Amino acid sequence: MSYQITYYGHGTFGLKINEYQILIDPFFSENPSTQIKPGDLNPDFILITHGHGDHVGDAVEIVNRTAAKVIANAEIAKWMGDKGAEVFPQHIGGGHDYPFGYVKLTQAVHGSALPDGSYGGMPAGFLITTLDKKKIYFAGDTGLFAGMSLIGEEDVHLAVLPIGDNYTMGPDDALRAVKMIQPQHVIPAHYNTWPLIAQDPEAWKERVEKETDTAVHVMQADTSLDL
Ligand code: NI
Ligand code: MN
What we know:
Helices cover 20% and strands 30% of the residues.
C-alpha cells in the first residue's frame, strides 16, 4: 500500500490515501502555477494550515459544492463552519483519527489572519500518519524552528517544506530543516509562484542530496508521485 501526492504549485497539494482524496491548502483560481480549477476537484477532506489567502484559497467554494470536510485549527474551522462547511477543529499538538489516517497539528512559525481580517489562530503544519503507518509532514508556511528536531524523532517518510524565502524558510534554512527532520523523501514548495519567492529547486536538490540521505523530488505543477 502506498499513497499518491499531487503538486498544484505553491503550497497546494493533493493526497490520495486508499480511496480518500485529501486537499491541502486548496489555492487554485489565483494560483498562476496550476491549470486546475477548483470546480475540477471532489475531495473528501480539506486540510488548511493557516488563514492566509494563498492557503485558504478556494476552500469555501469547494466545500459549498462538495461534501468535503475541513480539518484545521479551531479558529479556521469555526470560520469555515460559519460558511457552511462540516469541520473538525483541532489544535497544535493534538491528533485525531480519520478514515485515511491520523492527523496531528504541528507548530509553525508564521501568521494566520483570514482573508476578511478575522483572527485565524496559530498557524500549523500537519503530520499525517497513513493507514499503513507512513508519516507525511506538511510544514505549511514556517520559518525554521528548533522543534523540527522533535518531528525528526517520528520517522518521517515524506516532508513537504517551503523553500521560497521572504515569507517562509529559504533554501539554506530548508536544508537545515531536512537535517533536523531526516525524512526519507522531501518535496520543496512555496517557491516560484511570484518573482519575490523565485528559487532554483534543482540547485537545492543537489545540495540536500550531497549533504543528507534524503531523496529530493522537485515536482512540476499538476503532476503526481507515488510514494
Ligand atoms: Ni502564509
Ligand atoms: Mn503562503
